[in-house]
Design a protein that fits this description.
This protein has 483 residues and is of the alpha+beta class. The protein folds into three domains: 3-295, no CATH class; 304-415, no CATH class; 423-482, Arc Repressor Mutant, subunit A. Helices cover 40% and strands 20% of the residues. The chain has helices at residues 53-65, 168-185, 225-244, 290-297, 304-315, 319-325, 329-341, 345-363, 374-385, 391-404, 408-415, 423-436, 438-445, 450-462, 469-482; strands at 3-14, 69-70, 73-74, 77-80, 90-93, 100-101, 104-108, 113-125, 129-133, 144-148, 155-161, 197-207, 217-222, 252-257, 262-268, 278-279, 286-287. Helix 2 (168-185) packs antiparallel against helix 3 (225-244).
Length: 483
């Protein structure tokens, strides 16, 4: 039977506020365990929560960017469940009255556009972090578990999509697009590795052409775009195989095991009534004035789609190049800053998408974590243009820039890499090469054009790659034509 894939996503985003959702504790990442806590985020008796206004603002800002309807009235609820990383045994979240409802995101799949609907954007507090010791680092098989409450209470925005996604590839591209929007809004750093952007997926299959949804499984623990794609592809294959064998998909939560490349059953999926939601009695309802919402709307920055269109117009870039550069705010910023100092924007684009991206991927770094800055790249490109170094030499200089953070001029001077562009110096080396390679000279005269490449290579070998290759070609052809 031919099945249609149905995927809906729940994206959890830690917001870039200085303090937690309901208390004044800091939200710094990587601090020693349990050092950023207080009676409120530890759930001690008598401690009362106070709403973080900036977190509300960031959530409304996100809703406006996603074309959502902003609620004039909203309320927090208690979501009751029991787990060791949640000291109160309930989470302050939202239920019937989310801050934002509706909206959509257009996802460019190159051959077609997929419009993914947004169900809601709401706000809650994050839980603590469990660290399982022993086994595979999972609760199953662990000898014991540790808990760090530094993350407990950090503002967590949840974006829930409609079940509009039809493939693992669409899911990956959607999350990449959403991440870019959130980065441009500057409401989160969206680091999947650090857990500030986490994605859960509800996956089901249905016979193609039918309307009714199949039974869904929720997949968790996808901490990279690659993991997201691989986990969903596996889950689709697992459900299809199960259905074709006459089995049934169970509604459950499944864990993505990146080491084994499989999803495994974690627990039976809960329903809303299992959480016994009721209004949070320690917080008053919120009224959001239209004036305040308009003030937030006036602060919206240029978003990725608009920036992509501008890059195409202003820098004469292709649609593909512009889309790649605006896929993250930091990459777009790097490109624009470098283009202020070096006017050939296409060359800047090529180096960012080529050499820089290659080194970033190998080092598992984001562009704003790189030792290479726009100043470094612009200076390197100018050294190529003025003939100080060749394009081939520039790649070696770039590698050292990336590793050390030294400016290209310093590297060139320290290593004596200045390109030889003096005709008399190169002519003397060419004479020596022609004298020592008479067979290659004869081959060239007999119409074997490949011989010129060999002779150029010999000149470059003797000069240790420092000779200007264009000048070498020119002088070689002139001398061979005279022989």
């Amino acid at each position: 039977m031919d099945y249609e894939v149905v995927i809906g996503l729940e994206i959890h985003v830690e917001l870039l506020t200085e303090s937690k959702m309901f208390c004044g504790c800091p939200t710094l990442f990587g601090e020693p365990p349990n050092t950023q806590t207080c009676p409120v985020c530890l759930g001690l008796p008598g401690a009362l929560p106070v709403i973080n206004r900036k977190a509300i603002e960031y959530t409304v800002k996100t809703g406006l960017a996603l074309d959502s309807e902003i609620a004039s009235f909203s309320w927090f609820y208690r979501k009751n469940y029991f787990y060791p990383d949640m000291v109160k045994n309930y989470q302050i979240s939202q239920y019937d009255y989310p801050l934002c409802s509706g909206g959509s995101v257009e996802v460019d799949m190159q051959d077609y556009i997929r419009e993914v609907g947004i169900t809601r954007v709401h706000l809650e507090e994050d839980t603590g972090k469990l660290i399982h010791k022993g086994g595979a680092g999972r609760i199953a098989g662990a000898n014991y578990s540790l808990v760090d409450f530094n993350r407990s209470g950090v503002p967590l925005m949840e974006i829930v999509t409609e079940p509009d996604i039809r493939s693992p590839e669409e899911a990956k591209v959607f999350v990449q697009k959403l991440r870019s929007i959130l980065q441009h809004l500057e409401v989160s750093d969206c680091s999947m590795e650090q857990g500030s952007l986490r994605c859960d997926a509800n996956v089901s299959l249905r016979p193609r052409g039918t309307i009714e949804f199949g039974v869904k499984a929720e997949v968790k623990n996808m901490n990279s775009f690659k993991a997201l794609h691989k986990a969903l592809a596996y889950e689709v294959e697992r459900q299809e195989r199960l259905l074709e064998e006459g089995g049934q998909v169970e509604q459950e939560t499944r864990h993505w095991d990146a080491a084994k490349n499989v999803t495994t059953s974690l627990r039976t999926k809960e329903y809303a009534h299992d959480y016994r939601y009721f209004p949070e009695p320690d917080l008053v309802p919120m009224e959001l004035s239209k004036v305040w919402v308009r003030e937030i709307e006036s602060t919206l920055p240029e978003l990725p789609d608009a920036r992509k269109d501008r890059f195409e117009r202003e820098f004469s870039l292709s649609m593909h190049d512009a889309a790649t550069l605006t896929s993250s705010k930091a990459m777009g910023d790097f490109f624009e800053e470098c283009s202020k100092s070096y006017k050939d924007s296409k060359t800047v684009c090529n180096w960012i998408m080529g050499e820089l991206s290659k080194h970033l991927n190998a080092a598992n770094l984001e562009i704003d974590e790189s030792a290479v800055t726009p100043r470094h790249l612009a200076q390197l490109l100018k050294l190529i243009d003025d003939g100080t170094i060749s394009g081939k030499m520039a790649k070696g200089v770039f590698e050292e820039m990336f590793e050390t953070g030294k400016l290209p001029k310093v590297i060139v001077e320290d290593k004596g890499l200045t390109q030889i562009s003096n005709e008399d110096d190169i002519a003397g080396i060419i004479d020596l090469v022609l004298e020592e390679n008479s067979e290659a000279v004869a081959d060239f005269k007999n119409g074997k054009d490949k011989a010129i490449g060999f002779l150029v290579g010999q000149v470059m070998r003797l000069t240790k790659g420092r000779a200007n290759p264009g000048l070498v070609n020119k002088l070689l052809i002139e001398k061979l034509s005279e022989m």
